Amino acid sequence: MLSNFYTCPSFNIVNESEKFGGRRGKRMKKWTWISLIAIICILFTGVGKANAAEKGKRYIGLHDRILPIEDIRVIDGDTKVPLKDIANYLYLPVETKDGKTIIQKQGKEFIFDHSTGTTTLDGVDQPWKPIASIDGQLFISVKYIARETGFQFEYFQEHHTIRIYRNEFNHISHEAFKEVIKAHGTKQPPVSTSNASKKATVYLTFDDGPNQSTLINNATLEKYKVPATFFFLGNQMKQNESIVKTVSKSGHYIGSHSMTHDKALVYNSTESFIAEMAGGAELVEQLTGKSANLVRVPYGSKPLVTPSMQKSLIARGFKLWDWDVDSNDWRYTDKQAGQIVKNVQEGVTKAVKSGDKDIIILLHDRSQTTIALPRIIEWLQQEGYKFKAYEPDNHIIQNFLRDPLL
Ligand SMILES: [Zn+2]
User: What gap in Å lies between CA 134 and CA 126, rounded to an integer?
Assistant: First the structure.
């Protein structure tokens, strides 16, 4: 307070006032002036503090964590963040064409018109401008996009933090989240998003479902907002149709991992191989209405896939993924789940060192993997990796056969 008092510029007026009035009057006047100016100074510094807080660091929380978004701005009392950043974390597909930026999510269409600076939602004008173009970059209201895409939000005024979350997912209480905010304030600055975008993309892939572990993995992915790729077995899909639909609705990619997984049956002949792989793909398509052209063959493509099987896959328009990082999860018990996390950390670190920008990680829908998965995701997120599910329109070649057509 003392330092604030001294920096208050009007303090010098007190000395000026001493030049006027008599001895008694001077003393009276002096104290009146000091009190008055003190009050003004207190008021001013109070206001100054409020302004500083307004300009100070703000945070956006998503579920149980603080997002590493650097450029958070308060515009007319509303917190806005770069659209590209929040789109990344909320998995909002953003497209810019013909002077318009379009976001489509949950059947809703938001359009920002760059020439007029206006936003429409499903054709209806949004008069208070939830999206603004600042210094050539689009900023979007956090509360607006949260509310419109099915999130709840809570504002923690004393911590300058907006937390967005979905009630249907498990998350820590608001009281516990305040501790997360406090702990975050004392940490090193987070990895900036520009840094993160330079990092590799990781593709989590889960084989051998659908089963009960698939549902747990799916819930974990949902909680952390991470897209992934599943390779399901046909015979398992027949018994767990609802799980296939749940995973598909969560936005993950589902490909075929054969019907039986039985080495003797799958690799018996080219005909059996194709029937096994295509049978699984057809089931995915029937159950989800989505195409399933990507396969992962049981036990990996090499050395089991023959040149004839290879040719037949290509002729039928299939693509094949092996992997970059093997978690070896199937080798461990639930209690050894930590080893799976370690294997992924070592494998990814090695792949990055070798210059790999698209890292495909092999996991399974197994109990020990459900235990390891949260820690795997948290580590990858901390390291700044971006997650993607397989994108058919943006196919990445990764097969041990080194076939550019697969
Ligand atoms: Zn398998």
Answer: 18
pLDDT tens-digit profile, the chain (406 residues):
333 333 333 333 333 333 333 444 445 555 565 565 555 544 544 443 433 333 468 889 887 788 878 889 888 778 899 998 888 767 677 888 889 999 888 788 999 999 999 999 999 899 888 999 988 899 999 988 888 888 888 888 888 899 988 776 656 788 888 878 887 766 544 444 444 446 899 999 999 999 999 999 999 999 999 999 999 999 999 999 999 999 999 999 999 999 999 999 999 999 999 999 999 999 999 999 999 999 999 999 999 999 999 999 999 999 999 999 999 999 999 999 999 999 999 999 999 999 999 999 999 999 999 999 999 999 999 999 999 999 999 999 999 999 999 9
Residue 223 Cα to ligand 1 midpoint, Å, equals 25
pTM: 0.54
Any catalytic annotation for residue 261? no
The Å distance, Cα 101 to ligand 1 centre, comes to 41
Q: Please give the distance, rounded to the nearest whole angstrom, from the Cα atom of residue 208 to the centre of ligand 1.
A: 5
Q: How far does the centroid of ligand 1 lie from the alpha carbon of residue 292, in Å? A: 17
Distance 211 CA to ligand 1 centre (A): 13
CA of 50 relative to ligand 1 center, distance in Å: 59
Q: Is 64 a catalytic residue?
A: no
Catalytic residue among 63, 159, 171, 364: 364
- Out of 3.10.450.320, 3.30.990.10, 3.30.457.10, 3.40.50.150, the CATH code matching 59-193 is 3.30.457.10
Domain 199-394 = CATH 3.40.50.20: no
| Options 85, 207, 208, 365, the catalytic residue | 207
